[in-house]
Design brief:
Elements: E1 6-14, H1 21-36, E2 41-45, H2 53-56, E3 65-67, E4 70-72, E5 74-75, E6 80-84, H3 100-113, E7 119-125, H4 132-140, E8 146-151, H5 155-170, E9 175-186, E10 193-194, H6 201-209, E11 213-219, H7 221-229, H8 233-236, H9 241-257
Parallel strand pairs: 1-7, 1-8, 2-6, 2-7, 8-9, 9-11
Antiparallel strand pairs: 3-4, 5-6, 9-10
Helix pairs in contact: 1-9, 3-4, 5-6
Bound molecules: adenosine-5'-diphosphate and magnesium ion.
Length: 259
């Protein structure tokens, strides 16, 4: 079993798309890699149709290679071991047009044949919602430590996140907690926070549904700039409020998962 030496496995899910799930996964991985050391954190990008992890980690154009031990992950600059469907595509503009069973086969293969080596953490980034891919990953990922659920502070996203909580419960996967992303925008001129969305939705859904609230990450133009340039935000702006929020969230996750 090639995941035999992977100590902890965490999947990141959401109700809706575009809430920053991939950005959160990449920065959680970068924060964990900081804690645990280079080569100790893996990231599997299981978003078959819209894989964005390579772009956010500056790994576009990388290709997967394999050998006797299995498929080798690609190393990011910060020492994260990465595997993405994007590494199998001929170019950036090629879509994957597969029906369910083929997609499930591909996910199965990635879950079983990557030679991750010794990892403290493997994070899995999933497409939004509760469809085929999240279902397959959560059913096949052996001994998942839990899911992190990402939402934005809007009622629209909050409503769908409740479904994601119920989905994880139905699959008997522990819920590590909810992360609220894009929570407030700090004005670069006056320093005052503008609530772009309603605010507080993540915390409220967590309370209503009886799951932990892990923390809020502010909207920050620097975040999207960094991720567009392929650099994890927490490394480029380690003193920012968002980077601090990521460190707090990782602290909470480690406390629960390693206890
Ligand atoms: N807190 C934030 N501040 C600024 N931009 C963000 C923030 N979170 C995400 N983004 C940007 O929003 C876009 C969508 O995020 P992404 O992680 O791809 O969403 P998802 O994976 O949920 O579809 C990306 O361009 C990302 O860089
Ligand atoms: Mg994504």
């Amino acid at each position: 079993m090639r995941m035999g030496k992977v100590k902890h496995k965490i999947a990141v899910i959401s109700g809706k798309g575009g809430v920053g799930k991939t950005l959160v996964t990449v920065n959680l991985a970068a924060t964990l890699a900081h804690e645990k050391g280079a080569g100790k954190v893996g990231l599997l990008d299981a978003d078959i149709h819209g894989p964005c992890v390579p772009k956010m980690l500056g790994l576009k154009g990388s290709k997967l290679e394999s050998g006797l031990p299995g498929i080798f992950p690609v190393y990011s600059e910060g020492g994260i071991k990465v595997v993405s469907m994007a590494f199998l595509l001929p170019n950036d503009d090629s879509p994957i047009i597969w029906r369910g069973p083929i997609k499930m086969g591909a996910i199965k293969q990635l879950l079983s044949e990557v030679a991750w080596g010794e990892l403290d953490y493997l994070l899995v980034d999933l497409p939004p919602g509760t469809g085929d891919e999240p279902l397959t990953v959560l059913q096949l990922l052996p001994e998942t430590d839990g899911v992190v659920i990402v939402t934005i502070p809007s009622e629209v996203s909050g409503d769908v996140v409740r479904k994601a909580v119920t989905f994880a419960r139905m699959l008997n996967v522990p819920i590590l907690g909810i992360v609220e992303n894009m929570a407030g925008l700090v004005c670069p001129h006056c320093g005052e926070a503008i609530e772009v969305f309603m605010g507080g939705v993540g915390r409220r859904v967590a309370k209503d549904m009886g799951v932990p609230f892990l923390g809020s990450i502010p909207l920050d133009p620097g975040i999207s700039g960094d991720s567009d340039c392929g650099k994890p935000f927490i490394e480029e702006h380690s003193d920012s409020a968002a980077a601090k929020a990521f460190r707090e969230i990782v602290k909470k996750i480690i406390e629960v998962v390693e206890k």
